[in-house]
Amino acid sequence: MRAIVTVAGHDRVGIIAEVCSLLASLNVNILDINQTVMQEFFTMTMLVDTSAASGSFERIKKALADKGEAMALSIRIQQEDIFNAMYRI
Questions:
Q1: Contact criterion met (CB below 8 Å) for 79 and 28
Q2: Predicted confidence (pLDDT) per residue in 7-66, tens digit
Q3: Which residues contact 8 (CB under 8 A, 6 or more apart)?
Q4: Which of 7, 11, 30, 62 could hold 42 in an S-S bridge, CB 3.0 to 4.6 Å?
Q5: What are residue 11's phi and psi, to 5 degrees?
Q6: Are residues 75 and 26 in contact, defined by beta-carbon separation less than 8 angstroms?
Q7: What's this model's pTM, rounded to 2 decimal places?
């Protein structure tokens, strides 16, 4: 199953490394990644594959939310079909 991970917050060193390390520890494969920094604000969007994940989608969601809280960032994951339905014009 594919999903979209979004990360947003104040830029600092190590954001990509920490989020990618967490996903790797959960056996979530990153298929595509896009990030940008606008002045001091960091944003990243990732397309990931959770089909071989070592836990449920809810476990991944909680782990990312907890990591976001610890890093003072917003980190969210949505199933690809839900994300597409929300942003379809």
A1: no
A2: 999 999 999 999 999 999 999 999 999 999 999 999 999 999 999 999 899 999 999 999
A3: 41, 42, 43, 44, 73, 74
A4: 11
A5: -70, 145
A6: no
A7: 0.89
